[in-house]
Design goal:
Layout (H helix, E strand, L loop, with lengths): L2 H15 L3 H14 L4 H13 L3 H13 L5 H15 L3 H14 L4 H13 L3 H14 L4 H10 L7 H13 L3 H17 L3 H17 L10 H13 L18 E7 L5 H8 L5 E3 L5 H7 L13 H18 L5 E4 L8 H7 L5 E5 L2 H9 L13 H21 L4 E5 H6 L1 H12 L46 H6 L7
Parallel strand pairs: 1-3, 1-4, 2-3, 4-5
Helix pairs in contact: 1-2, 2-3, 3-4, 4-5, 5-6, 5-7, 6-7, 7-8, 8-9, 9-11, 10-11, 11-12, 13-19, 18-19
């Protein structure tokens, strides 16, 4: 490499470190136009393109890094696999890339972890189990593998040796993040064995470790800010337009929006719908939040957007959907916190049908507390914060129901597990889809990838044990029950 090239590469690297992504992309592009054999520059360009969601370009740049003999090619195959799996929803290509990484380095733990997780998504429990066991044989202190392995085991029949292993690992974990992952896995097994006080203690410690694992002050839920957000969304509800430019686009899949709280039965609902021919389960897409982020300030300007602007935004959404799911007639968008964006949805798609999944209040709040979520969802780390978030969620949903009473369907998890055929038929009727009883057996199928914390629950025929879960934690939930008393059934 010439001195000039080295200087340009150092400048590009500096821009990358400073987070000046567009400038860094331009710098690497100029370098590679002149010196196309610089494998590390292709790699860095791919990383930046991925951060910009230029995914096909990132895949191409990663491939060029491989073509020019980049160091650690297994890492490049891993990164390509992540793009295919997590962003493009193409599990077959993801599996190929991960296997290529492992062909180069059979003991490459990051690829083994990702391949095991992909097998979980695809419902291949034995293969995932085997991969986690292999990782633990290579590195007994890989606590992430131990936590995931424990989460794969049926909770009620997990052996005591595994419980002892988790207890020991929690004590010995080198990091708070590892302690959190292990603690959530331990709580799940204890709950499954009906050791409820011990389970609650494990989950409480896991949530505390999860909060403490972040930069101090970053995982604190701001109740006032959440209230102000809901106030702002209510004030900024757009006037419902009679024009439906985007709705009439028949070249793209038509979206069906599923929203609600975590652990409210949304994945079960989505998998039920995915039994229908021509409907694909899109999972938790980030398309709407990204569109909302392109409007400044959001949501204050929503009422001022004209039909042309809304139509352009809707067209962008549908084009992204078409790229992700070519050939689909319908796609479910199960980004749960889209319940905050229902006004935006109705502005984009006036005829949109929205499925709101619901569940017993205390069961739902408890299950969120028992779920290992990203710390950015800081409300989930404390029961009373969850209660506050729940109140604000109910407040905004009451508003949307008043605005769009005919367009929101309440899909009750508790009613569904008691009367699956009755509730499922109502859901399909609401969406204008043909109902068939055979769809009730399809959620247990491993044919579709399921990327959710409830992955193994939705693969059972009908998962019923979570309904009424809160009754096992009466003492622990006493304060939350009092706080939500006016929202609970009498």
């Amino acid at each position: 490499m010439t001195d000039n090239a080295q200087t340009l590469v150092r400048n590009a690297q500096m821009l990358q470190r400073l987070g000046r992504v567009p400038e860094a992309v331009e710098a690497y592009t100029r370098i590679l136009d002149r010196w196309p054999d610089l494998a590390d520059c292709w790699y860095n360009l791919a990383v930046l393109q991925k951060s910009q969601r230029r995914l096909e370009e990132a895949l191409d740049s990663y491939q060029k890094a491989l073509d020019h003999n980049v160091a650690s090619p297994e890492e490049v195959h891993l990164n390509r696999g992540v793009i295919y799996s997590d962003f493009l929803r193409r599990p077959a290509e993801a599996e190929q890339e991960l296997n290529r990484a492992l062909a180069l380095n059979p003991n490459y733990v990051p690829a083994l972890l990702n391949l095991a997780n992909l097998n979980e998504d695809l419902g291949r429990r034995p293969q995932a189990n085997a991969l986690y066991r292999k990782i633990l044989s290579l590195d007994p202190r890989c606590h992430e593998a131990l936590a995931r392995y424990a989460n794969l085991q049926p909770a009620s029949s997990a052996d005591e040796q595994l419980l002892d292993q988790l207890h020991s690992a929690v004590r010995l974990a080198a990091s708070l993040a590892e302690r959190a992952s292990l603690g959530f896995a331990l709580g799940r097994l204890l709950d499954g064995k009906a050791r409820y006080p011990a389970a609650f203690e494990a989950y409480t410690a896991a949530n505390a470790a999860s909060r403490a694992s972040t930069v101090p002050g970053t995982a604190i839920y701001d109740r006032r800010r959440q209230e102000e957000l809901v106030d702002l969304l209510i004030r900024s509800t757009p006037v419902r337009s009679s024009t439906a430019t985007a709705d009439s686009n028949t070249d793209s899949p038509q979206p069906i929006f599923i929203c609600g709280l975590f652990r409210s039965g949304s994945t079960l609902t989505e998998q039920l719908l995915a039994g229908h021919d021509g409907l694909i389960a899109g999972g938790e897409l980030d398309l709407l939040p990204r569109l909302a982020g392109s409007i400044s300030p959001f949501p204050q300007t929503l009422p001022t957007l004209d039909a042309q602007h809304l139509g352009a935004l809707a067209a962008r959404y549908l084009e992204e959907l078409r790229k992700l799911f070519p050939g689909a007639r319908y796609v479910t968008d199960k980004r749960l916190d889209n319940f905050l964006l229902i006004g935006f949805i109705k502005g984009l798609f006036p005829r949109a049908r929205i499925v709101h999944t619901t569940r017993d209040s205390l069961d739902n709040c408890l299950s969120i507390f028992f779920l290992h979520l990203d710390q950015r969802m800081s409300y989930a780390l404390d029961l009373l914060d969850i209660g506050h978030y729940y109140r604000q969620y109910r407040r905004i949903m009451d508003h949307w129901r008043n605005c769009f009473p005919e367009d929101i369907f309440e899909m009750s998890y508790d009613l569904f597990v008691r009367e699956p055929s009755v509730q499922a038929r109502k859901l399909f009727d609401f969406l204008g889809l043909q109902w068939n009883e055979r769809y009730l057996s399809l959620p247990g199928s491993g044919a579709r990838a399921v990327k959710t914390a409830s992955v193994w629950q939705v693969r059972e025929s009908i998962y019923t044990r979570s309904s009424g879960r809160a009754m096992h934690y009466r003492t622990e939930l006493a304060e939350l029950r009092e706080y939500l008393s006016d929202l609970l059934p009498r």
